[in-house]
Amino acid sequence: MNWEQLLSNQRAGESPRQHDISRSAFEQDYDRIIFSHPFRRLQDKTQVHPLPEYDFVHTRLTHSLEVSSVGRSLGKRAGQVLLQRHKELSEKFSVHDLGAIVAAASLTHDIGNPPFGHSGEDAISEFFLNHPAARLFQDQVDEWQWQDLTNFEGNAQGFRILNKERYQGLKLTYATLAAFSKYPRKSLLPGRDKTRRSQKKYGFFQAESALFEAIADNVGLIRYADHVWSRHPLAFLVEAADDICYQLIDLEDGCRLNLVSYDDTVELYAGILRDKFDQAKLERIESNDERIGTLRALSIGVLIDECCSLFLDEEKNLLNGTFDTALTDQIKTTEVLKDIESLSIEKIYRARSVMETEAAGFEVVPGLLASFTTAAFEVIKNTTLTKKDQSALRLLPVEIKNEISQHTDLYSALMSCVDFVSGMTDSHAISLYRKIKGISLPRT
């Protein structure tokens, strides 16, 4: 792979444009995302904790903004060195371009996540695997399509959302889309290489496979097998930005909610800062919340330095595809991050409020999918719809109803139903579920 090709400003259905120094295509990507409907919905999607009454914790929106900020720092820091190493790039690109690509891709990294956090993903998968309403579907889709449905993946849904024309036609550059794609492979991959981080999950559904192939060819990703490619090098920086934020900031939230003790939190941050940790200076700050916030900010800076240094050291291996692991798994602070993750699993991710949110997701998401996929199935079969199915269809947005037509195949119709349910905010999903089940009635 080579950097000039990797930094392609090509957009789907458009001719390549001359690079604009005043406002690059990559900066336009960032702005398009900020003003999009799917991005705004993240403000009411659970990150880890449901929103408490008397304190502030992160939603998917605030988390995504913070990941984007860290991603921009990583991209600009790496770009400064890359442009010095490759003088020919400086004629077309600036450090701001690399920062903008990583920032935009980071901004969208959770855009495909359904309501109720990761339990929402599991709930979609389990609906198609186990729900009585889904038993008729398997024989009418192919094996790859069935894998898409029964192993729902937020990363693939994100790629789908970013390329759906109805979402204001985002049409992001191929460089940003490739940097977004941490798992550039199809869902059905029996012989996946478990040593490669890029094959841990999958990054696109069958419905978007042709588009992903066009992007991969355009930016020059290495093809390993049918619908399996190497990562875009900047995807490692996007992943690092997410890893840094969710580990350090989930710990901060856990401390604010008294799920993790103040002393344990300080000790873990001090392990990252090492000789930069100054107990006396810390104690001059009056509020414990401010102390934790200061330590978190300093720790982010340390991890940015370490991840960027490793990225630059491994540039050659990143470009030839031989480096394929998370940056945060090979830096000086890796062991401390593992300690934070272990503590978070024990004290934060298994907190009662988190478990209650997950339990709700396993009721609400399958309940909604059962109503809409059953109606869609009857439409595809061209049978007379029951009154119940007619009511379910009327609840769908007009664009979803148009996709679920008598001329649509079942896989596409089911994916449209998944688009609708997975795109909901937590509040919208709960409200609609309660109305469909007769638990509550609309208010005028």
UniProtKB/TrEMBL annotation:
Residues 56-256 form the HD/PDEase domain. The keyword Hydrolase applies. GO terms for molecular function: dGTPase activity. Residues 1-22 are annotated as: Disordered. The keyword Nucleotide-binding does not apply. InterPro entries: dGTP_triP_hydro_central_sf, dGTP_triphosphohydrolase_C, dGTPase, dGTPase-like, HD/PDEase_dom, HD_domain, PHydrolase_assoc_dom. Gene3D superfamilies: eoxyguanosinetriphosphate triphosphohydrolase domain-like (1.10.3550.10), Hypothetical protein af1432 (1.10.3210.10), putative deoxyguanosinetriphosphate triphosphohydrolase like domain (1.10.3410.10). Residues 1-12 have a biased composition (Polar residues). CDD domains: HDc (cd00077). One of its GO terms (biological process) is dGTP catabolic process. NCBIfam families: dGTP_triPase, PRK01096.1. This is Deoxyguanosinetriphosphate triphosphohydrolase. The lineage of its organism: Bacteria, Pseudomonadati, Bacteroidota, Cytophagia, Cytophagales.
